[in-house]
């Protein structure tokens, strides 16, 4: 399994140009910023017995910006 997060609200975001951040945020279905805790919650779930039925999946954590 893989976890594929997108831009999260961290100090690292300061290295991304403001115009790109705004462009990306305009395409999100969920308007609240993605937090590191959101990514951690997914990883904790995947490490738990509750995820035993998941195999070979990629978990895109992207606030609905890239739909498949």
How would you characterize the overall build of this protein?
It is a single chain. By secondary structure, the chain is α+β, with helices and mostly antiparallel strands. The protein has one domain (2-61). The chain contains two helices and two strands, in the order βααβ. The chain has a two-stranded parallel ribbon. The longest helix is centred in the middle third of the chain and has 12 residues, at 36-47. The mean pLDDT is 88. InterPro entries: NAD(P)-bd_dom_sf, SDR_fam. Pfam families: adh_short_C2 (PF13561).
Per-chain topology:
Layout: E1 2-5, H1 18-26, H2 36-47, E2 58-61
Parallel strand pairs: 1-2
Query: How many beta strands in the DSSP annotation?
Result: 2
The average pLDDT value, as a whole number, equals 88
* Unreliable stretches: none
Please give the domain count.
Answer: 1
- How are the strands ordered across the major sheet? 1-2
Helix content: 25-40%
Shape: elongated
Beta-strand percentage?
Answer: 5-15%
Number of helices: 2
For the CA atoms, what is the radius of gyration? 13 Å
N-to-C order of helices and strands:
EHHE
Structural class: alpha+beta
InterPro entries: NAD(P)-bd_dom_sf (IPR036291), SDR_fam (IPR002347)
